[in-house]
Batch of 2 targets.
Target 1
Amino acid sequence: MNKQPNAGNSSEYYLPYLEDPAILHTYPNGHRLIIIRKPGDILHLQTNVLVGASYEDETNNGVSHFLEHLMFKGTAKYPVGEFDKIMEGMGARINAATSDDCTYYYATFPKDDDGGNLRLAMELQADMLMNAALPADEIGPEIDLNDMENGEKRERMVVLEEILMGKDNPFRRAIKKLNELLMPTHPYRREVIGTEEIIAHISRDDIYAFYRKWYVPNAMVTTVAGEVDPAEIIEMVAKYYNFADCKPAVFPLLTMDKPPTRNTETVTAPQNVAYILTGFLTPPAKQVEDTCALDAISLILGGSVSCRMQMELIEKLPNTPFIAVGGGNYTMRDCGRYLNYAIVNHERVEEAQELFMGVLNRIITDPPTLAELDMAKICLESQFATQVERVVGMADLASSMMVENMGLDYVQKNLDIIRSLTIDDLKNTAEKYLHTENSCTVLVMPGEGNE
Amino acid sequence: MNYEKYLLNNGIELIYIPAPNSARTVISIGMEGGRRYDEIPGASLLRSRLTLKGTTTRDAETILRELDNNAISLSDHLDNDYQYLSAAFLPQKFDIAMELLADVFLNPTFAEWEKEIQQMIGAIHASLDMPPEIVRDLLTRTIFNNHPYSYTGTKVLQAIPKLNQELLVSEYKKILNERHLIICVSGNMDPQQLLQIMNGYFGLLPARSFQPFLPAFTPINEDIEVIETKAEMNQAHVIMSWYAPKFGDDMMVPLRIANIILGGGMSSRLFRELRDKQGLAYSIGSGYLPYIQVGQFAINIGTSPTNIDKIAPQFIEQLQKMQNNIVSDEEFERAKTVIRANHILGHETNRNWCLDYAHLASIGAPLEYFKLMLEKLKLVTKEDVMLAMQQINGPSVKAVLMPE
């Protein structure tokens, strides 16, 4: 532990595949900074704001995402358009994204000799996060959803267009319905992008209040990855992320839903093929012993080229109704979702569903073998090696540890747990979370839309 | 990136890219091929899908299990003008990865072709459930007319009865025995030892030379509008496209600059005008694809169906502004910086370099391509950018997907 008076506390964490330790620095105001030293020509700057759709309610669902769009609409110092021009003018790839648990803003750009790119990127990004103007004329007036052709169209309409785009994606429809079934009371049930009704009408005042409530130092984690000098970065962040007095965010504790009882719903939409999507409720990300075991199970069951689903439903099944299968274990702060999906010939859905559920069920009755466990371990290790090849991958990994209420030590901890997994661990975890009686399934079938 | 070039006994090039600190080793085999070489739509796609489906000594299950048991990521990439087979793995798995890669490359049987055709049909139907793919398919098969570049999912579905194992085998024999090949390896290895290993696997193949196949192409000669409808869609999709300078053309670099200024980012003209100012879309942009025989320039948008009539005139207006006016200094310098930065950001890993070298060599481009491109970039003027944009002046295709 290296104490730096007046500037906060720094701790070092050795991350796999990196020679120099990463540094987690916490400033007195609660703003956290992760520095990942990775040799190379590329720098990455990312700030995760610890607010996403899970801290919204029925009246403002979608506000985190709408705000993410509006953050790019200028500040007093850099009017609308300047941020994009200056950042892209240094060759930066810039963007932002919103999830259930956070909203993040990033820039990836080439390292220059005098560090000017990083200073400028940081100044701009910090200014955007602290001083967003959210101009009313950029937000645009309320929109009458029954008369969208008329009226002034600004960013409000851009987000409505994004909602419309998502509604035309059959897989997204399935995920939406499945979340509602798996988590009937937790805010994770709602779509991050929100509803058309709320986006069409939410006021600038409500958006601004949300911004001021959450864009505060103790709700921010900034990550800098690349070949950098930590002391310089700690000083630079202190200089640019110079928050005015603001009230610290208070993070609500949300109650998780109980595991559901088996349930299947059918959604119809005009399409060529059918989709089967089955999910289970799993523990919060912080329960790493369970989530690592579920990661391994997901590779054995549906997430690798030789997984059971691929072998039993496609490779070994003559005249198979299955077009593609897959799955994964998706962790989040309050709970996770274990998902498996299949794309199938719509004329043979019943048969396909029975076969699909049969394979899922056999993860309990026919637990993973040693060979499967070994396969999962080496694949997870390799996935890790792949992710940390890039500064973006490393930054994503480290920042997700903070977003999901863990800590940087969990990067190595995850890897250690994966390496020590036993067949019993997988068996016990499957029995705990993956009983088909606790699964929810959504079928998306060709037909006239019923959503 | 530094590379070392070696020749196998039969003249096949081996490119070694030292990457001493990389967590993974990568091997790519670049092949002269791609959709352009297809006599029947879908032949190369089906062949590509069968890459892991069996060799003379391994069935699909064995291959897939060996890949996972050794955490080897092995995939085939197919494009209009090239194809490569690539394996990425932890360095300690080199021997098994090399042996597997060589086996699937040298000894495929295509025995599972009938089953894979059914899978391919399903996959195409699934992709054609996605509106952006439906409109791209419509545009591509229209603008490339009778040329294999037009072999989209829809055209492949129509040609299914003509696909068979005999066709796949005879076509693959050409790749093994006649067509240009290149092998790229990136990792931490002794190059001489690597050369010896590669000679053991590939050094006995016949010598070959690069003889690109350029099938006949009849361009469209008038503006065409094609419309498809789909029930209950919430958004419409519009793409306008023109022929553009092909790969290697002197105007390629200026047109890349023009494309960035017009529709290549959040500060581009299309993004600022149609999205930020008018709120017409979430997804808007332009793209330039310089293929070997002809290039393609396109502007696309996803928008509310009520906006369809407003879109094309605005596309044309923005295009004409670029054709009739010199771009600003600021836009010009920004676009050049973006190209230089993309070169760096796009080559962060040894895998990126390995795949790019396989790609370049498989289309007959020099490995110094990136260096030459960056040198050309310095010489481009704002007038060149306007001239390049003026080449987007031939017949256009406007493809529209809208609700029924």
Target 2
Amino acid sequence: MKRLIACLALIASPLAAQDFSEGSEARSWNLYAEVPATFEAEVVDVLCALTGDCPDDCGEGKRQLGLVRAADGVLILPLKNSQPAFTGAAVELAPFCGQTVTVDGLMLDDPELGANNLYQLQTIQVSGADRIKANQWTKAWARNNPEAKGKGPWFRRDPRINGIIATEGYLGLGLDVDQAFIEENF
Amino acid sequence: MRIRIKQDAAVALALLTAPFAAQAAEGTRIQVTGEIIDTWCYYSGVMGSPDAVVGSAHQACALWCSAGGIPVGLLAEDGTVYMILKVGEDTESAGGDTLLSLAAHTVEADGMLYERDGLNYLVVANVVSDMDITNKNHDDYGNVPSFSIPDPNK
């Protein structure tokens, strides 16, 4: 038994000590809890991994996708892609559903707030290919919303968002509350 | 002796790697009440403190992030965050209509909790009640970010 515990400790210690920032070329976003991290991982549909509800295509970017890190089997949840535009990472990872990739980006590490194994995805690389920037979301949005073509950022032109704001206001409490707030603050 | 050590190492390796290979996890049925939040702004601090990136102050940004496919969470009254993977029959947790319509609302949810690697994942079977936006914090924090409401004077 002692030998078994010793073997477990020997095998587990390199995993616990692994530094995923080594070799990372991730750009800083000046986030208080950011830690650069590059690692190899399998792209998984999180709902599938947890419940067994598994479409063939991981949901085509409409489900949250995760990264099961090869070194330790930890499920990393990417919250964000590399665009400073309120955009997630599922669309970026969807083409790699079920594949093993190497990603680079920033981990968010704040145990006090509960930020564990959360990630901002900057690049994706399949073995033998060039790194791909995780910045395709707005192009996909433009393809899916041709009627919203125009100037300004996507979130000012998105029909669904504008529909909600038109009825509930920017504060979500009704147009009268918005009007009073705007008169007082602008 | 050498064979015994190899056997021990093999057992240890099997014990360590078994959870990695596992697919479906064991869930727990829960009922939880909390606010539907934008998890990127909440965890990253990019827009300010956690108290400022919830509620009416952050409603517009919560809509942008939800429509943009950023994971949506349920912030429970005890501070626990549950990452929402499904609501009813709607599996579109990345930019779907159901979660967009609930941005910043306080809801009571009934569903299955899955815990994995320090995060809580919630499969909502039923939104028992939708209390709309109850956290009216714009008087304390203004609109966050400050550009979320276009300046009518420009």
